[in-house]
């Protein structure tokens, strides 16, 4: 199996394990996360290394954590995986991924496979994909994470062409994806008046299992991280969380939750979508990824399980380019 795409039977077994883990996910989230990594890391290690090239550890700012990896496709495929003439490659859409970690932990490469599997998947499907690391609390408090997303986006727009390969990169088709705390930073970057750019720098966004309210409820396992990032003034939690600025969302957004989520995140996602639906008089894209949990919702990408990947590629294909 080395160097090959994981066989369907293997990813189906992994998904079945996630389904079995799901009902007890909130009993011990840390143990559940370890089980997800133990399941998906060896499976991802069997995936082909063909179809993409990567340049690692590029600096987008002055801090040691201002680093990103750029993945580019090496096969001529369109954004939904369709073949295109090798003699005339079109500029590739750009997918930018911002990892999670409860505001106080996390790296763009949690290990040799996890979270790099996300940009790897999109590079295989014809996108230039970027994996972004950012500063953590308590060193970087609100709005530091969103400021780092903004800094990374400026770097990407200025420099991505030199890493994009022969066809180049299409700056009018940037899709910004954030998972968990990374989704909070992405949403704040897009909506919060203290961070958002004067004009949108992306064509669309995907918020995966994002913390859209800064709650410190007793059953929130990441309440200490919320306090470390947003501070201990509960009034500021409400004012600074992405939900407070949802009406300013400037681009199409797809909101994603796992079937088995960390407490309240699915409720907040639905509230976020409801607010956008009221504003726009139509519902935004909302996806619940069956069988998966808060961690496997991204860890399964590039295993052959296309539960979420195909939905994101379709969304990227459908949204209008930015000006």
Automatic annotation (TrEMBL):
Entry-linked InterPro entries: AB_hydrolase_fold, BD-FAE-like_dom, GDXG_lipolytic_enzyme
Keyword entries, A-Z: Hydrolase
Domain (BD-FAE-like): residue spans on this chain: 85-188
Keyword Hydrolase appears in the UniProt entry: yes
Pfam families the UniProt entry points to: BD-FAE (PF20434)
GO molecular function terms listed in the Swiss-Prot or TrEMBL record: hydrolase activity
Stretch forming the signal peptide: none
Protein name per the record: Lipase
Source organism: Pandoraea sputorum
């Amino acid at each position: 199996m080395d160097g090959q795409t994981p066989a369907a039977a293997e990813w189906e077994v992994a998904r079945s394990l996630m389904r079995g883990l799901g009902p007890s996910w909130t009993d011990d989230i840390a143990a559940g996360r370890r089980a997800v990594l133990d399941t998906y890391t060896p499976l991802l290690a069997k995936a082909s290394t063909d179809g993409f090239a990567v340049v690692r550890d590029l600096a987008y700012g002055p801090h040691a954590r201002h680093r990103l990896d750029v993945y580019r496709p090496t096969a001529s495929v369109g954004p939904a995986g369709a073949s295109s003439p090798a003699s005339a490659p079109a500029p590739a859409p750009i997918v930018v991924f911002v990892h999670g970690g409860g505001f106080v932990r996390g790296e763009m490469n949690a290990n040799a496979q996890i979270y790099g599997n996300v940009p790897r998947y999109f590079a295989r499907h014809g996108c230039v994909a970027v994996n972004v690391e950012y500063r953590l609390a308590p060193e970087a408090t609100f709005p530091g994470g969103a400021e780092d997303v903004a800094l990374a986006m400026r770097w990407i727009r200025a420099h991505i062409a030199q890493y994009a390969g022969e066809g180049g990169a299409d700056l009018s088709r940037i899709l910004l994806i954030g998972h968990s705390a990374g989704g909070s930073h992405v949403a704040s970057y897009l909506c919060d008046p203290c961070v958002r750019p004067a004009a949108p720098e992306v064509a669309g966004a995907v918020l995966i299992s994002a913390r859209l309210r800064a709650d410190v409820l007793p059953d929130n396992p990441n309440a200490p991280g919320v306090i470390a990032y947003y501070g201990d003034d509960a009034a500021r939690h409400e004012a600074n969380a992405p939900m407070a600025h949802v009406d300013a969302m400037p681009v199409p957004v797809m909101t994603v939750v796992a079937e088995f989520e960390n407490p309240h995140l699915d409720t907040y996602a639905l509230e976020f979508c409801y607010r956008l639906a009221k504003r726009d008089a139509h519902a935004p894209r909302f996806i619940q990824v069956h069988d998966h949990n808060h961690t496997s919702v991204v860890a399964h990408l590039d295993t052959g399980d296309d539960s979420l990947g195909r939905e994101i590629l379709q969304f990227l294909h459908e949204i209008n380019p930015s000006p």
